[in-house]
Amino acid sequence: MYDFDLLVLGSGPGGQKAAIAAAKLGRRAAVVEKRDMLGGVCINTGTIPSKTLREAVLYLTGLNQRELYGQNYRVKDEITVGDLGMRTRHVIGREIQVIRSQLTRNRVTLMQGTGRFLDGHTIGVLDETGEEKKVTAAKVVIATGTTPARPDSVEFDDRTVVDSDAILHLDRVPDTMVVVGAGVIGIEYASMFAALGTKVTVVERRERMLEFCDLEIVEALKYHLRDLAVTFRFGESVAAVERRGAGALTVLESGKRVPADCVMYSAGRQGKTAELCLETAGLTADSRGRIKVDDHYRTEVPHIYAVGDVIGFPALAATSMEQGRLAAQHACGEPVADMHDLQPIGIYTVPEISFVGRTEDELTRDRVPFEVGVSRYRELARGQIIGDSYGMLKLLVSSEDRRLLGVHVFGTGATELVHIGQTVMGCGGTVDYLVNAVFNYPTLAESYKVAALDAMNKMRAIARLTGEG
Fold this sequence. Notes:
Elements: E1 4-9, H1 13-24, E2 29-33, H2 40-44, H3 47-61, H4 66-69, H5 81-105, E3 109-112, E4 114-119, E5 122-126, E6 132-142, E7 146-148, E8 161-162, E9 176-180, H6 184-195, E10 199-204, H7 215-227, E11 231-234, E12 238-244, E13 247-252, E14 257-260, E15 262-265, E16 269-271, E17 304-306, H8 317-331, E18 345-347, E19 353-357, H9 360-365, E20 370-376, H10 381-386, E21 392-398, E22 404-410, H11 414-426, H12 431-436, H13 447-466
Parallel strand pairs: 1-2, 1-6, 2-3, 6-17, 8-15, 9-10, 9-15, 10-11
Antiparallel strand pairs: 4-5, 5-6, 7-16, 12-13, 13-14, 18-19, 19-22, 20-21, 21-22
Helix pairs in contact: 1-8, 3-5, 3-6
Family: Belongs to the class-I pyridine nucleotide-disulfide oxidoreductase family.
Main location: cytoplasm
Keywords: Cytoplasm, FAD, Flavoprotein, NAD, NADP, Oxidoreductase
């Protein structure tokens, strides 16, 4: 006899959905989380704060309105950290209320504290007073997430040299900043601070940023970031970061030295498994704190599951939610369908990027014949109305059966627009549907019809020359 049928360690997106899914199936479910971290990293230091910060930046700087009202347009001339933090705190507070309400409504027990394994079925929950309570569970889901990796060679002080958590608590908007690492998190923050007027230098040891994205889209983003005075140092590695007075000096292995008010180090994420005492449950984690799982998110110990960032790629809030739901269903003995292969990627840079499916490079490498259809926001009435002349949508279409192979969007609303293409692809649809569909006018969604017609016209031109079709 166990205290709970399913106990979840961590209340982030994966943990929430796992606990609620189990509760919906009539199981006794519980979540273990620290008092000040309900919602996990996603709500408190990661996805929600950073995306809310982005919205605050776009609004207060008036960046998206400057094509209509001029380059000097501002909602507020002197933007402070307090201005940015007010909106972030409001959203975080409301989201925590929503999560607490959902757990309560579904009769999920919330245990406040830090959990660790005492054995495979027993969890010790240490509260703020230092008292540890023991609880047992038939099944356990590990959803503890990750924390920013901090190399030993870098002296973090959370003021001058910061990671992606500490950057949310700066006491002022820096005039200059170095961002080490051109991954998703690094580029998102680089673009936000550049929009605020900070002169940003991005240092990346690889030769390009966001290597998994469409090259044309990345080049468009890079152009706009340079327009915001971002300097890129590709193929460069950091030798040292030295704090100097009120700033820091970033020394590159090539000998270059870059002074700045603030250095943000974005060196990947580390799984939060060190405090779990995994070995007492018969589990291990790799050097990055990640736990290995099978197709049903089971660990090496069959009754213990792991979901979300702690299991590694793709480490997205959206995929973590689905992993949690599927893991709970499997743990409860319910029929489980595999997660769909089509998972959209959203990158909240300024401007934003989103895509689903394959890239041109991947299709070319695999020798898959395809045609490209492009629509540019400046050709759409809606693009003119909102003042976005740079946005674009690109469709990759099979030359053989006209199926959609990939959708890539850059500009306003990219992370929303991509789901139209995702749905068509998921249903096995072809470009013909988009050609014949009627979209509301004026909308950005109309870009699908324009891009589809572009691809179809190109394929028709080839057919005329070759006598095919």
